[in-house]
Structures are given as structure tokens and as C-alpha cells.
Hints:
With about 80 residues, the chain is mainly β.
Amino acid sequence: MDATTHGCADRVLISSAVFTGLQDDATPAFIAIQGEHITAVGKREEAGEWIGPQTAVHDLGNGFIMPGVHDNHVFLPAICLCTAV
Length: 85
């Protein structure tokens, strides 16, 4: 998939530390977002292909990015819910 087929991204995130799961370490890369969907993840030097005049570009420097869905809630043990206050 590329921008010529699907248009420019609404938002592009660029970082020197993007973890995609394809390698053991985070690498320089970009993430293109259209609406609420990640449409591309690629090498940092390819980000320009997704950037148009209306694209918001966020260069996060060395900020760590891990694209995907992250659920960070916790289930409390049942004893916490049953204890009288």
C-alpha cells in the first residue's frame, strides 16, 4: 500500500525508535495514520511519500513508538471487591 493508491495521511509520526515486532529492537521509522487507522509503517526516509499539504507531521525524535492496540487495565482480585469498608 502506498500514498499514490490511498492518498496522503492525515497524520505522520516519525521517530528513531519505532518497534514493529519485525526486529528485536526499535528502529528509525514512520507511522502514517488516516482517520483512526494506521495505514503504513515504514523506513523513516519513506515518510515523505505519505505527507501532503494537510498532513500533520510529528517528529518525536528518540521517543519510543509501538503501533497497535494497547490495553492497560488491571483486574483487581475478588477479595478487594468483597471487603467491607
